[in-house]
Amino acid sequence: MTPADRAILERLWNxxxxxxxxxxxxxxxxxxxxxxxxxxxxxxxxNHGLIEYHDEDRxxxxxxxxxRSYLTGELEIDELET
Length: 82
What we know:
Layout: H1 3-13, H2 24-29, H3 35-47, E1 51-55, E2 60-63, H4 65-71
Antiparallel strand pairs: 1-2
Protein name: ArsR family transcriptional regulator
Organism: Halorubrum ezzemoulense
InterPro entries: WH-like_DNA-bd_sf, WH_DNA-bd_sf
């Protein structure tokens, strides 16, 4: 888990507020990372089941239950590597 991965998950989680559904471009606009970096990391996060498409045609993503579990500490990082 890299700082960029964590930033993406936290942006989607939007702690204390309603969770967000966002594109890589919108996450990049609200972070210190380039859109290409965000997109690459989102592919890996999706491969690990931490995020999923909300709308695949428009490339809009949302957190999965697994992503929420990771952010709340219910899922350990070593459980993601498998």
